[in-house]
Write a structure and sequence with these properties.
By secondary structure, the chain is mainly β. The termini are far apart. It comes from Pygoscelis papua (Gentoo penguin). Keywords: Disulfide bond, Repeat.
């Protein structure tokens, strides 16, 4: 169908109205193809007219000349419980030169779920009146999926928020750069942000949004804090929310979980970039052995068309915690320090075992061999094997970040830094310069450590280091897997830092292909040192350096046996015993080089 202008009066309006529909299901979408071409063709918009609401809701707009081509529009209608109509309005200019046309109008997934004769299984819910059988994850999510409202009956209001009456029990973080804004209708900037909320699907409903226009600056953060929750079993607490990320300069939305109040927590999920003009549902399964809190963080992009929306946030299988999260102080190694030590007679040069109060030499702390019965001498150290699957950094820490105060300082969030990532969280196109799968599990859900080159500038470097390692054995080596793919990859170095002296042990630069590559670095006997991974940023964001499966092999120092060496062993000058097969093999197995002496 096309529009023909019949006179030259200014601002003529042509209207095309749909039949009246009784209602629509929660997954309802409308699509059509449109043509809007000509120098003064004018604008077009699609409006939603709901019975009982005087104000129409704008669902879609075409701004003037869109070129000599057919374009597809996809509009999310969602659950509409009341009768409604659609009106396509075309506004022409005074001197009409152009053609507007529409074709192939399609409604998809607009029916309510069909009734079922039975509905069995712990993961299913049988609707009271419509007798539909729906997924139990849809229960108490602020959406009438049944069509009779029964899936939203008897829900705890403290576990859900649709923002129609404020923030509920969510709070704005005071440590971020600015706040989320509660709004109804479209955001103030065209071509970005929602036109309507998710709860009602109309301009009368409220939602939260993050404003990306000035005075907001690139990578400013707005953080929303959930109430506190009791510990939950293996994924028994479920967080559901709807997000809207539409605009050419949309940057990032992320969700964190924390069990300590003065920390940023660990990343559960994130999404980058423009996701289209639609509300998207996300479900996260949360496990915690301690009381916890959820943080939802929006990050501003490089421009004003980067608004992000949030709506219909709910929890299932979770219970509120009536208390406060603990706080911790950190040392430069990023580890918590107990307030008191057990009774002991240790000197300042000795380490106190936390459980027993036993004294051991300080050189025995962080040497890859537990000497305390509770292994406390190895607890504040780098882990011998790290695959990042428990979403921790295994004792590795970033010295530059540790020196900065504040959890949401712009310094800690906008600079080039190491962070945890996984392929499932990549935005479209990011897999060209960041790993799509990890090395441990070879899946998109596996975690790795990467230096995010979307931050920082050309030539910036970032270090991640171990706490001080007291002593290693003669065969000690570090084995790791690295991923360096992208058109502007910088470099990766492995350094050894002893006091104020730093030496380079291994280096790689440039594009190494879209696969994980194994690297091995011999350390041997060293004392009181740190291992540092240093990433250097290339000329653009198209090159993230990643590492995974970092292992310290054969690194525990030699032990002097409480017996004489056997006939199969060689007695080193320092009384260590080593296999005779290790003599004269160009390796300092004894640690004093006596196994390589020419006089043997």
């Amino acid at each position: 169908m096309f529009i023909l202008k019949n006179n030259s009066s200014i601002s003529q309006v042509a209207q095309l109205r749909s039949p009246k529909f009784r209602q629509a299901g929660s997954n309802c979408t409308l699509s059509f193809w449109y043509y809007n071409y000509g120098q003064s063709v004018g604008a077009a918009e699609l409006q939603l007219l709901v019975d009982g609401l005087k104000q129409p809701t704008v669902l879609w707009r075409a701004y003037y000349n869109e070129g000599n081509q057919w374009l597809k529009a996809v509009i999310q209608l969602g659950r509409l419980p009341h009768p409604f109509q659609l009106s396509l309005d075309k506004i022409s200019l005074g001197f009409y030169d152009g053609i507007s046309a529409i074709d192939d109008i399609t409604f998809e997934n607009c029916a309510l779920p069909p009734p079922a004769l039975s509905c069995e299984g712990s993961n299913r819910f049988w609707c009271r009146d419509t007798k539909a059988c729906i997924d139990s994850l849809l229960v108490c999510d602020l959406v009438d999926n049944c069509g009779d409202g029964s899936d939203e009956d008897n829900c705890n209001p403290d576990l859900q928020c649709n923002f129609e009456n404020g923030l509920c029990n969510w709070e704005q973080d005071v440590e971020d750069d600015f706040d989320w804004v509660r709004i109804l209708g479209p955001t103030p900037t065209a071509n970005t942000g929602p036109l309507k909320d998710h709860t009602t699907g109309t301009a009368r409903g409220h939602y939260l949004y993050m404003e990306s226009s000035k005075p907001s600056q690139f990578q400013d953060k707005a953080v929303l804090l959930s109430p506190l929750f009791n510990p939950s079993g293996n994924g028994t607490c479920i967080f559901r929310f709807h997000y809207h990320m539409f605009g050419k300069q949309v940057y990032k939305l992320s969700v964190f979980q924390r069990t300590v109040s003065n920390t940023k927590g660990w990343l559960l999920w994130y999404k980058f970039g423009n996701q289209g003009n639609r509300w998207i549902r996300q479900t996260l399964y949360i496990s915690s052995s301690k009381p916890f809190q959820i943080l939802v963080k929006g990050t501003v992009g490089d421009g004003f068309t980067g608004d992000i929306g949030l709506d219909d946030m709910s929890f299932l299988g979770c219970t509120l915690y009536n208390g406060n999260l603990p706080t911790i102080s950190t040392t430069t190694s990023g580890t918590s320090v107990p307030a008191t030590l057990p009774m002991n007679n240790c000197t300042e040069k000795e380490f106190v075992c936390r459980a027993s109060g036993r004294c051991i030499q300080m050189i025995q702390k962080c040497d890859f061999r537990p000497d305390c019965s509770d292994k406390s001498d190895e607890s504040a150290c780098v882990m011998e094997v790290c695959d990042f699957e428990d979403k921790t950094q295994c004792g590795w820490y970033q010295p530059a970040l540790e020196q900065m105060s504040g959890n949401y300082s712009t310094h800690t969030t906008s600079i080039f830094k190491w962070e945890l990532g996984k392929g499932a969280n990549l935005y479209p196109g990011q897999e060209k310069h960041c790993p799509l799968i990890d090395h441990t599990t070879c899946t998109e859900e596996g975690w790795y450590l990467f230096a995010d080159s979307s931050n920082g500038e050309f030539g910036h470097t970032v270090d991640i280091a171990t706490p001080v390692i007291s002593l290693t054995g003669p065969k000690c080596k570090i084995v790791f897997w690295n991923h360096m793919n992208g058109s502007t990859i910088g470099s990766l170095e492995v350094l050894c830092k002893t006091g104020n002296r730093t030496s380079k042990l291994w280096t790689q630069s440039g594009n190494q292909g879209p696969q994980w590559n194994r690297a091995e670095v011999f350390l041997g006997i060293r004392s009181n040192f740190q291992i540092v991974f240093r990433a250097k940023r290339g000329v653009s964001y198209m090159g993230d350096v990643a590492v995974d499966d970092i292992t310290f092999e054969d690194c525990s120092p030699l032990l002097i046996p409480g017996r004489p060496c056997t006939s199969e062993e060689f007695t080193c000058a320092n009384k260590y015993c080593i296999p005779k097969d290790n003599l004269c093999d160009f390796v300092n197995d004894c640690a004093d080089n006596s196994d390589e002496s020419p006089t043997i």
